Input
Amino acid sequence: MAAAVCRENRGTFMNATEVERLVRNVIVEHGLPFTFVSISSAPPRWNVSVRAETGEVVQFQLPDGRPVDMRMTVHEILEERT
Output
């Protein structure tokens, strides 16, 4: 759903493409053993799916918010699953 948009509490917007980029960047920057699969909007959060090296699909909810907070959340969630 590339056209989906979630509204932050502070009134700024991130679309699905931007959130996907954020998740992909966290995976690459930290060398995490995941591949991005999909994202969908479910205000006030995003439903994210990634595939682990083992083939397992990992799904999690990412609360909408400031990009820096979202990056930290993605990193913490995926670190816990490695």
